[in-house]
Amino acid sequence: MRYSKVISTMAVLQVLLLLLLSFHHQLQVLAQATQSYQDFSYMKFVYNATNLPQEEEYDYIVIGGGTAGCPLAATLSEKYSVLVLERGGAPISTPSVLSSSGYFTNLMEADYGKTTPAQRFTSEDGVKNVRGRVLGGSSMINGGFFSHAQEEFFSKSGVEWEREEVEKAYEWVEESIVSRSNLTLWSSAFKEALLEAGVGPDNGFTLDHVLGTKQSGSTFDNLGRRHGAVELLNKGEAKNLKVAVYATVERILFSSKASTSNPSAIGVIYTDSKGKSHRALVRNKGEVILSAGALGSPQLLLLSGIGPSSYLSSLKIPLIQHQKNVGQFMADNPRNNIFLITPFPLDSSYVQVVGITTDYFLENNVGDLPFSSTPEPFSEFTSFSSSSINLSLANVNMKIPGPLSHGDLRLASSSNVKTSPRVRFNYFQDPVDLARCVRGMRKIGEMLETKSMDRFKYTDLQGQKGFLLLGLPLPSNYKTDDSSVEEFCRSTVTTVWHYHGGCLVGKVVDGDFRVMGINKLRVVDGSTFTVSPGTNPQATVMMLGRYVGLKMLQERKESK
Questions:
Q1: How far is CA 313 from CA 128, 268, 310, 447, in A?
Q2: How far is CA 228 from CA 30, 174, 209, 342, in A?
Q3: Count of H helices and E strands in the chain?
């Protein structure tokens, strides 16, 4: 198979010039046509933290206005006052998050601090990554794919789910922000290649997690407008909601621990963009809820004195509660890619189609990517770093479900929450993950040999056809040699941005997401997950916010 055929640099540049002339204008028009159609009603209760009082009191405080925090806050506001504290800004301050044309821009943009919606960090595995830093969280910087969790997620979660209520919570999200998009040429060809390569059956369009090939929903509509978790705030009771942006929570406050009772969360200390400190307190029967994400939630617990006693003592952090598993069982689903420069321009496309097997998930996208100082998973393309030409680049990628490999999180600073914690995921530490990668990459090799992919090959002067690749090709003996594919998996591993863990159910929180040993404190986000839900987690993270919010309202009602 000649899919890894080398094309001369001069020929590549000629192709790139054609792509630039015919495609760049389309992206400019698309970017100008977006925005202004999203529902920004929530902005009437969004405030810059600098304009808030030095001390206030609420029924509930939600730390993190992200993928889980927005639906959670909207739900609680139906009956009670809620303060949402978001360290980033509102989406209108960074318009790139509002359209599909800004998807790759957000992932590759340099990190300028609090105004950049994607905060960069590098795991101790050496893999570069991002975390959301904008109202709406990572739902404002992701690929938009919306698909439910697999049965394994629910069975291994440690939660006694009421499945009818789960479905209602999914539907509550979907009715507001999920669309069925029209397949692009690349997505259609990708779907055909999956089926030709045996990833069946063809399940058509469905939001459910089912084996085979399917199209699913998207938080991008057919005009490329993003409808992230932030728009779920519109479903809340405006008079009960207050959202503070550029509000960085430094630590959680606790009542004095009596000898006969557990400590209780009573509020938080947060700072605004000018460095001024504020206190927000919760009323009787109120709670503090951490929805700061898989990095932010365990980090804030540790900074607030909840974690392994010996570790906190070594950092001179006053101990509130010994919790040996805070920051443990951190996992990130490995992603490996094949990138193709196509011989003709393609419309930019986010994830629309997925191939689901028990061992791996296969996805795709295509975009116009500048190759100058690009971060992973695009930084391997350094040979074009001197060129400002944009490339039309198609991607086939493979994600390992689970995963079984995991690591841990530690503080990089014992006092500054703005410093991202140190995290290690230990990609492919478990041999099962590595074996799944081998099988997944072989399936991608099969897909590249299908008739559906022929149209994306180049023909050289001798009349021979082959793909023009960026990055490493699959090994020439990939069909028969496990060790060579294993090395490919290790050397090309990147992130799919679905990291989770650090506050697992049954280890840090109970089945109702309460922090064990602490009163009036919960964690409601992906840090509680044992495995990543489905092919893409955002649907389930949003569902979780709604689901837990309803449970909390019911608890309050029954306690009266």
A1: 30, 22, 5, 54
A2: 19, 11, 21, 30
A3: 11, 27
- Cβ atoms of 197 and 446 within 8 Å: the answer is yes
Tell me the DSSP string of 15-34. HHHHHHHHHHHHHHHHHHHS
CA proximity to 231, closest of 244, 246, 219: 219
Q: Is 335 left (phi over 0), alpha (psi -120 to 50) or beta?
A: beta
CA dihedral 382, 383, 387, 392 (to 10 degrees): -80
Q: Is 36 helix (H, G, I), strand (E, B) or coil?
A: coil
Beta strands in 188-333 (DSSP E): 202-205, 212-215, 217-218, 241-245, 248-254, 265-271, 277-290, 306-307, 321-322, 328-330
Closest CA to 144 of 340, 346, 349: 349
Q: How far is CA 123 from each of CA 407, 408, 411, 420, 494, rounded to the nearest angstrom? A: 10, 10, 13, 10, 11
The whole-angstrom separation of Cα 390 and Cα 231 is 32
Indicate the SS3 state at residue 505. Answer: strand
Three-class secondary structure of residue 240 per DSSP: helix
- Residue pLDDT, tens place only, 140-180: 999 999 999 999 999 999 999 999 999 999 999 999 999 99
How, if at all, do strands 468-470 and 334-341 pair?
A: antiparallel
Q: What's the token pair of residue 175? A: 């009715």
pTM equals: 0.90
Distance, in Å, from the CA atom of 540 to the CA atom of 68, rounded to the nearest integer, reads 9
* C-alpha triplet 103, 109, 110: angle, nearest 5°: 160
Query: Each residue of 224-276: pLDDT tens digit?
Result: 999 999 999 999 999 999 999 999 999 999 997 655 589 999 999 999 999 99
CB under 8 Å to 418, separation ≥6 — which residues?
Answer: 248
- Angle (nearest 5°) at CA 396 between 395 and 400: 130
Alpha-carbon distances, residue 458 vs 10, 164, 344, 463 (angstroms)? 14, 51, 10, 9
Alpha-carbon distance of 82 to 276, in angstroms, equals: 21
* Per-residue tokens: 83: 């303060």
- The span from the CA of 236 to the CA of 30, in Å, is 31
- Alpha-carbon span 124 to 464, nearest angstrom: 43
> What one-character-per-residue DSSP string does 49-117 give?
GGGS-SEEEEEEEEE--STTHHHHHHHHTTTS-EEEEESSB-GGGSGGGGBGGGHHHHHHS---STT-S
Q: What residues have CB less than 8 Å from 184, skipping those under 6 apart?
A: 346, 347, 349, 352, 366
- The C-alpha atoms of residue 487 and residue 431 are separated, in whole angstroms, by 13
Question: d(Cα 490, Cα 248) in Å, to the nearest integer?
Answer: 36
- Asked if 268 and 61 touch (Cβ cutoff 8 Å), the reply is yes
